[in-house]
Amino acid sequence: MNLTDRVAVITGGAGGIGAALARRFAAEGAAAVVVADLDAVAAAAVAEDVGPVAHAVAVDVTVEDQVRELVADTERRYGRIDLFCANAGVSTGAGVEADDADWDRAWRVNVLHHVYAARAALPGMLERGGGYLLHTCSAAGVLTAVGDAPYTATKHAAVGFAEWLAITYRDRGVRVSALCPQGVDTPMLADGLASGHLGAQVIAASGAVLTPDQVADATIAGLAEERFLILPHPEVAGYALRRAQDPDGWQAGLRKLVRRLRA
């Protein structure tokens, strides 16, 4: 996909990867960029920074009616949605002891939000004969987020759902990509490091932390090639291959790293 003259919607657009995507889409010549976020003030600030093509909307992605209205409002305002980026996500930093509320929030933001977006955006895309769904799924969706059971489980589900969409709708003109970055310099990572989140420590120890703008660059390249898996950290492909070929060895390596960090 070429972003020139396209209408794009980005959830979780008020910061981190979402804000970087908004800026980059505008720089690529997008006709409109809708910055959607639970934080209305921050979304408005990003839209103002992006410029005249941007429009901010307050949306709680865990409420299907609000996601449906986001899509309907964008289609009324601009006539179509060419690219819907389901980018909002949450982590917990917890294991099996995470309470039901944390599991439910991770499920609703990291998975059901993608379902709601697809339900709302697909009818218009199918009627027009084309469109693009971009799901931010994280490298945790193809590997494991050490120290965060809800994040790992829900991001795997997000990748699985994106793959199902790609298989089901590609021949009807709708392309789907799963954006799977590993360490990114965002508030999520900073908060995790500050709180002693084991997964954040693993990422920091890897030394491969990208800026949101670098992730946006990789996203543009992936969209141009219409790749299903967009991997801003190319090494993730190698990790995934090792994990598939030798799951016991892969797990042993991670356990060794965890022991070293805990020591």
UniProtKB/TrEMBL annotation:
<dbReference type="Pfam" id="PF00106">
    <property type="entry name" value="adh_short"/>
</dbReference>
<dbReference type="InterPro" id="IPR036291">
    <property type="entry name" value="NAD(P)-bd_dom_sf"/>
</dbReference>
<dbReference type="GO" id="GO:0016491">
    <property type="term" value="F:oxidoreductase activity"/>
</dbReference>
<feature type="domain" description="Ketoreductase">
    <location>
        <begin position="6"/>
        <end position="190"/>
    </location>
</feature>
<protein>
    <submittedName>
        <fullName>NADP-dependent 3-hydroxy acid dehydrogenase YdfG</fullName>
    </submittedName>
</protein>
<dbReference type="InterPro" id="IPR002347">
    <property type="entry name" value="SDR_fam"/>
</dbReference>
<dbReference type="InterPro" id="IPR020904">
    <property type="entry name" value="Sc_DH/Rdtase_CS"/>
</dbReference>
<dbReference type="InterPro" id="IPR057326">
    <property type="entry name" value="KR_dom"/>
</dbReference>
<comment type="similarity">
    <text>Belongs to the short-chain dehydrogenases/reductases (SDR) family.</text>
</comment>
<keyword id="KW-0560">Oxidoreductase</keyword>
